């Protein structure tokens, strides 16, 4: 273990990254994760995330406002799930769909794992500048809905793979979510799937035009799902899977977004985002 190759990111000048639409959200999540990584009480420790953050010329606060703990906590939760899975599946396959600038590969740092990241070509082009591929890390420049990416990843032992889809599925239509999960399971019938979902109220807010700040409008998130709909939906797309749901943890800080979600969810005014883990067979 302890496998970690850090590219040299000590650039004399910061580099401008031009992204729009959904790919630009990789900078939003980077903003929040970097803030967690530099806090003494942060949910994650991630030097690679900080290096990338400091190497990009971008006004994060202007676009996204003050950072909040949401994405750092989400990454922490996925790290915990993945470490548990690796303990049972040493030498397995990890697939990150919608990887963006996520640096989980470096946080986990396990030389037994083969790692495949999938994202649209625009996003992978940026990722490759900071997280280049090597013998255990492959970057694939395709949409998660371009199912030819499945031809670019190997078979998993006993049909297993760890597939993360954090911050991805909400940008798809429900029928696309359903088909994507079914396509993944056709190749990896005993996969562990980990992803987050948003409630319908938040989906509807983005469809009407949700301004994170006066300079940034969040891309539409068509797929939202209510708490009572989750288990029936997952039983349909992944029959027999055990579904574990974890509520988001928002640290109360100066971010208006964190206060909004904290109070709305603490007093049960509305449902909150969840992280789901779907497991089957020996990985229960």
Strand order of the largest sheet: 5-4-3-6-7-11-10
Sketch the topology as an H/E string, one letter per element: EHHEHHEHEHEEHEHEEHEHE
| Content-based structural category | alpha/beta
Number of strands: 11
Q: What is the subunit organization of this protein?
A: single chain
The average pLDDT value, as a whole number, equals 90
Percent strand equals 15-25%
Provide the low-confidence segments as ranges.
Answer: 1-5
Shape: globular
Helix content: 25-40%
The gyration radius over C-alpha positions equals 18 Å
Describe the largest sheet. Answer: 7 strands, mixed
Number of helical regions: 10
Short key terms for the protein model shown above:
single chain, alpha/beta, seven-stranded mixed β-sheet, 10 helices, 11 strands, 39% helix, 16% strand
Characterization of this structure:
It is a single chain. The chain has a seven-stranded mixed beta sheet, covered by helices on one side. It has a two-stranded parallel ribbon with strand order 1-2. A two-stranded antiparallel ribbon has the order 8-9. Helix 1 (21-38) packs across helix 2 (47-55) and helix 1 crosses helix 4. 39% of the residues lie in helices and 16% in strands. It is an alpha/beta fold and 284 residues long. It has helices at 21-38, 47-55, 60-64, 70-88, 104-108, 121-130, 174-187, 200-208, 227-237, 256-266, and strands at residues 15-16, 56-57, 93-97, 114-119, 137-141, 162-164, 192-197, 211-213, 216-217, 242-247, 274-279. The longest helix is centred in the first third of the chain and has 19 residues, at 70-88.
